[in-house]
């Protein structure tokens, strides 16, 4: 499955405004499928930053790397699945999205992006 | 204010969403009892002007009118972060506390309000009424110590940590995989997380951030900001359902918020 197919599986979910594959190390976009008005480079950089800090948290606790990050805001959410390769599969969503469905799609996508 | 006035203000705000017209508009809607209409106007105003105490005060009054005490409490404590001498916030917090039957807390807020406005006879009368309701007999020099919120909530230690934005632990503790205290290391890692999350959601137009959930491995984590200058981390083994962990974190954040308010 290509990265484009992987992202399409995420963006098919109602309420998902876009999906990206991001390099967790430097916060650069590897692939993206975004609605107009969503700045992919900004999403990548900011998600990489927050996800990196969360990786630091589990590291400080001597725990294995996390699988999924969910940043919930008043008018939407940012979800990111950690792929073993260091890539992040990210979704930007509306507030009323089925978060459970997005979570599953991202975890599956992260397996393909490994 | 007439319906025409409200309509005119609504049109003005639509033309210029960055103007301050949301203040008189939301207040007018609140006074007319149109709380469902007033709320989004005030929320968007507070999101657009997060440093404006008046915007948060207005939001708090609307929340209070809607019977949403916890959310009104949050908004008024935000007002006090921005303006520690805001009379309306102290009056509002006193009212909320009184309504919740927390007379001692209500008295403290009212006393601060009276200190700020010593010539306000209505405030002094309110203070006396609450004193009577509380059956209070003040003992000079005694103040009840506030409990550590995380100790109160935690059956097991090492599962919740409250820290300030400089990465200094405030309460609670967290243990690493070897069972050793990792509070300082975790606090250092999380010192900037609130600002980073804020930056991310603001740039994406997602409004203020509410929570961060982290799952995977042997434990799951929840992050909250009980106040604008603190961060709370709560963790549980992965066997604890994610929704339950989120509720535990919400409860701990609420207790932490009150505890921090007591300290200030």
Number of DSSP E strands of chain A = 5
Return the CATH topology of the largest domain in chain B. Answer: Serine Threonine Protein Phosphatase 5, Tetratricopeptide repeat
Strand proportion of chain A: 25-35%
CATH homologous superfamily descriptor of the largest domain in chain B: Tetratricopeptide repeat domain
Task: Report what the structure shows.
The complex is a heterodimer of chains A (114) and B (264). Chain A is α+β, with helices and mostly antiparallel strands and 114 residues long. Chain A is built from three helices and five strands, in the order H-E-E-H-E-E-E-H. In chain A, helix 1 packs antiparallel against helix 3 (99-112). Chain A starts with a helix and ends with a helix. The model of chain A has no long low-confidence stretch (mean pLDDT 89). With 264 residues, chain B is an alpha+beta fold. Chain B folds into two domains: 3-134, Tetratricopeptide repeat domain (Serine Threonine Protein Phosphatase 5, Tetratricopeptide repeat, Alpha Horseshoe); 149-263, 2-Layer Sandwich (Beta-Lactamase). A five-stranded antiparallel beta sheet of chain B has the order 2-1-5-4-3, sandwiched between helices. In chain B, strand 4 (219-224) and strand 5 form a beta hairpin. Chain B is globular and about 65 Å long. The A-B interface holds A 38-39, 42-43, 46-47, 49-50, 53-54, 56-78, 82, 92 and B 43, 47, 174-178, 182, 185-186, 188-190, 192-193, 196-197, 199-201, 203-219, 221, 233. Strand 3 of chain A pairs antiparallel with strand 3 of chain B, so a sheet runs across the interface.
């Amino acid at each position: 499955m290509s990265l484009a197919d992987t992202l399409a599986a995420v963006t098919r979910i109602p309420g998902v405004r876009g999906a990206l594959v991001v390099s967790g190390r430097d916060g650069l976009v590897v692939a993206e499928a975004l609605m107009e008005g969503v700045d992919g480079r900004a999403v990548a950089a900011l998600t990489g930053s927050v996800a990196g800090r969360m990786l630091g948290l589990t590291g400080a606790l001597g725990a294995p790397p996390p699988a999924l990050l969910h940043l919930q805001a008043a008018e939407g959410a940012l979800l990111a699945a950690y792929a073993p390769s260091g890539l992040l599969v990210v979704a930007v969503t509306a507030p009323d999205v089925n978060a459970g469905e997005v979570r599953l799609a991202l975890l599956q996508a992260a397996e393909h992006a490994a | 204010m007439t319906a025409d006035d409200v309509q005119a203000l609504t049109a003005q705000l639509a033309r210029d969403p960055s103007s301050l017209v949301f203040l008189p508009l939301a207040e007018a809607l609140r006074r007319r009892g149109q709380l469902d209409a007033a709320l989004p106007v005030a929320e968007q105003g507070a999101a657009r002007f997060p440093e404006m105490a008046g915007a948060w005060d207005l939001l708090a009054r609307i929340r209070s009118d809607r019977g949403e005490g916890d959310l009104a409490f949050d908004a008024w404590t935000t007002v006090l972060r921005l303006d520690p001498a805001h009379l309306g916030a102290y009056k509002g917090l006193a009212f909320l506390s009184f309504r919740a039957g927390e007379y001692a807390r209500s008295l403290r807020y009212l006393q601060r309000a009276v200190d700020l406005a010593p010539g306000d006879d209505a405030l002094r009368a309110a203070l006396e009424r609450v004193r009577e309701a509380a059956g209070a007999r003040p003992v000079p020099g005694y103040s009840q110590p506030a409990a550590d919120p995380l100790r109160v909530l935690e059956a097991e230690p090492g599962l919740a940590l409250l820290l300030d934005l400089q990465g200094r632990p405030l309460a609670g503790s967290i243990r690493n995989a070897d069972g050793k205290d990792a509070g300082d290391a975790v606090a250092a890692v999380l010192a900037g997380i609130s600002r980073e999350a804020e930056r991310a959601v603001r740039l994406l137009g997602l409004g203020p951030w509410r929570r961060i959930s982290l799952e995977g491995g042997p434990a799951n984590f929840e992050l909250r900001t009980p106040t604008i200058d603190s961060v709370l981390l709560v963790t549980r083994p992965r066997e604890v359902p994610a929704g339950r962990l989120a509720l535990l974190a919400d409860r701990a954040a609420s207790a932490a918020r009150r505890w921090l308010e007591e300290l200030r």
